[in-house]
Amino acid sequence: MSQKISLSRYLVEQQRVHGHIPSELRLLLEVVARACKSISHAVNKGALGGVLGSADSENVQGEVQKKLDIIANEVLIEANEWGGHLAAMASEEMDSIYAVPNRYPQGEYLLLFDPLDGSSNIDVNVSIGTIFSVLKKPNDDPRKVEAVSEADFLQAGKQQVAAGYCVYGPQTTLVLTVGDGVAMFTLDREQGSFVLTQENVRIPEDTKEFAINMSNMRHWDAPVKRYIDECLQGKEGPRGKDFNMRWIASMVADVHRILTRGGVFMYPWDKREPDKPGKLRLMYEANPMSWLVEQAGGASTNGRQRILDIQPQKLHERVSVILGSKNEVERVTAYHQA
Ligand code: P6P
């Protein structure tokens, strides 16, 4: 039986053999993985852990927070604040950035995360997940620790040095890229460690499966309506093939399916909130997922431009997302330019 490769060994090889990552980043990713393991344990307890249901609070998006949203956020902050690898953190669940307190050792990285994405699925036992993105603190002068500001976080997604998610489903699986392709690690609960179960993940360039919330159809822009209508016409229509539809309402679970078997995921702009470019968040949802998808041979745009090229103006900025199988994403993007 082939020897099991742990996440730790994979990261050491990325550092020492391939020279892709410095030790500081390796250690940061180990801390994030340990935090995801703790979140997985809390999620798996469900009602037995008294962690289901809503807290009586709202996040910066004005969404009611679930108890597990808050627990997951606290786990990630506590795990990282004294680790010594970070200068600051940003979370969907926090209005402003969290700079590592001066009493702790500080590092050169910025960590952004959605601690528990898809939380409307928590109480109905459907897959949810943690999404994370790592940036370098700009103009990092190791001789002195400058104050970190929100402006330091406002970097385009192509500046990421690591990105990933952990999906809490039938398996707990950590999916990661440091710019050398995409690798998947499944949590071995007996050993308590993440074990490499797939590397060099590739998304098929074509697909017969799309993911979108169809109940919003009447609100979509014309290019999206055209694309979905053609899919629904099946083999008798211009696409010449039948399509299947999936919508889990957990981006992590939908993206995991696409990384595993292809497909196209869409959360486009719609006229319910005309002044907002979309529902999903750029910095800690779209950017990490877009880098993973591109590293696996897929594509990701907002309908008009590559998501990883977008220069953010605000920390909690929203964006339209069309990602997955390259040829499908290019088709939808072309319809926007028609
Ligand atoms: P809707 C979860 O709240 C989320 O941010 C993504 O994970 C998911 O893809 C989307 O929103 C679901 O949105 O409008 O279908 O509930």
Please provide a written account of the structure.
This protein has two domains: 7-198, Fructose-1,6-Bisphosphatase, subunit A, domain 1 (Fructose-1,6-Bisphosphatase, Chain A, domain 1); 209-337, 3-Layer(aba) Sandwich (D-Maltodextrin-Binding Protein, domain 2), CATH 3.40.190. The chain is 29% helix and 23% strand. It is built from seven helices and 17 strands. An eight-stranded mixed β-sheet has the order 4-3-5-6-7-8-9-10, with helices on both faces. A five-stranded mixed β-sheet has the order 12-11-13-17-15, with helices on both faces. Strand 9 (183-188) and strand 10 (193-198) form a beta hairpin. The protein is globular. The protein starts with 6 loop residues before the first helix and ends with a helix. The site of 6-O-phosphono-alpha-D-fructofuranose has 9 residues, from loops.
Strand content: 15-25%
CATH homologous superfamily grouping of the largest domain: Fructose-1,6-Bisphosphatase, subunit A, domain 1
CATH architectural grouping of the largest domain: 2-Layer Sandwich
Query: Biggest β-sheet, characterized?
Result: 8 strands, mixed
* Count of individual beta strands: 17
Gap from first CA to last CA: 54 Å
Name the average pLDDT: 94
What is the H/E string? HHEEHEEEEEEEEEHEHEEHEEEH
Radius of gyration: 20 Å
What number of structural domains do the residues give? 2
Specify the CATH class of the largest domain: Alpha Beta
Bound molecules: 6-O-phosphono-alpha-D-fructofuranose
The amount of helix comes to: 25-40%
What would the principal axes of the Cα set say about the shape? globular
* Derived structural class: alpha+beta
Low-confidence stretches: none
Q: Which strands sit side by side, in order, in the main sheet?
A: 4-3-5-6-7-8-9-10
CATH topology of the largest domain: Fructose-1,6-Bisphosphatase, Chain A, domain 1
Binding site for substrate: 117-120, 213, 279
Binding site for Mg(2+) 2: 114, 117, 285
Main location: cytoplasm
Enzyme class: hydrolase
